[in-house]
Structures are given as C-alpha cells and as structure tokens.
Amino acid sequence: QVQLVESGGGLVQPGGSLRLSCEASGSGNIFSIYTMGWYRQAPGKQRELVADITSGDSTNYVDSAKGRFIISRDNAKNTVYLQMDSLKPEDTGVYYCNAKRITSIATLRYWGQGTQVTVSS
C-alpha cells in the first residue's frame, strides 16, 4: 500500500506561481518504478490529468499546462513536484497526486487526499 501526501496549495493571484509536492510512503524502495501524476478537479467538473512523469522521466502535459507547468521527481526523497507558473483562474481546483504501477496482474493506482489551489485576484 502506498500513501501519498500533497502539500503546497493555496491562494495565489493570476500570473503567480505555486509549487506542489507529493511525498510517497509505503512503497519501499520501488517508488522509482511508479508513474507519478498530478490530476485536477475543478468545481462541477470531472477529474483530469494535468501532468505525469514515468519511471524513465518521460513527461506528459495537458495542453493547457504546456509551457507553464513542470512536473519533476526526486526518487531519493520519494517525492514528485509540480511547478506551476503564470497561473490562471481556470487552474483553480483540487490537485490530486496519483501513483500508478502496471503489474502482470493488474494496474495499481493510489491517490492522495488533494490540495486546494485557488487562483483569484
């Protein structure tokens, strides 16, 4: 079982920056093999993928995040980050950290409790 704890959310003005962190525990020494992702759920909308990063450090971003957000990981600290710059009101939502591992039997997914990001003047 993997536990994920997000931090770094808050209230920021449009054009500002935030850095989200997600620390994993319970993964033993295999954190590095998980694909880690950040998802966002805005009020009244479905949860959507914002960015993810594979065990090989390949990254993927939703179009609205390209050029503004950067996802990175520090396997020594079992932590994944999301640097968010040039924030817009439409970036508002609860941001969830996700860990995914595909085994021969099933795809394992773990979620954090979420951290609120509000972009408003």
N- and C-termini, Cα separation: 40 Å
Could you give a short account of the major beta sheet? 7 strands, mixed
Principal-axes shape call:
globular
Number of beta strands = 11
- In the predicted model, the low-confidence regions spanning at least 5 consecutive residues are none
Order of secondary-structure elements: EEEEEEEEEEE
Q: By helix and strand content, what is the structural category?
A: mainly beta
Radius of gyration from the alpha-carbon trace, in angstroms:
14 Å
Amount of helix: under 10%
The overall average pLDDT, rounded, is 95
Q: What percent of residues are in strands?
A: over 45%
Q: If helices are DSSP runs of H or I spanning 4 or more residues, what is the number of helices?
A: 0
How are the secondary structure elements laid out?
Layout lengths: L2 E5 L2 E3 L5 E8 L9 E7 L6 E6 L5 E3 L7 E6 L4 E6 L8 E10 L4 E5 L3 E5 L2
Parallel strand pairs: 2-11
Antiparallel strand pairs: 1-3, 3-8, 4-5, 4-9, 5-6, 7-8, 9-10, 9-11
Short description:
The protein has 121 residues and is mostly beta strands. It has no helices and eleven strands.
Question: Your description of this structure?
Answer:
The chain is mainly beta. The chain is built from no helices and 11 strands. The protein has strands at residues 3-7, 10-12, 18-25, 35-41, 48-53, 59-61, 69-74, 79-84, 93-102, 107-111, 115-119. The strands form 2 sheets. Strands 2, 4, 5, 6, 9, 10 and 11 form a 7-stranded mixed β-sheet that branches.
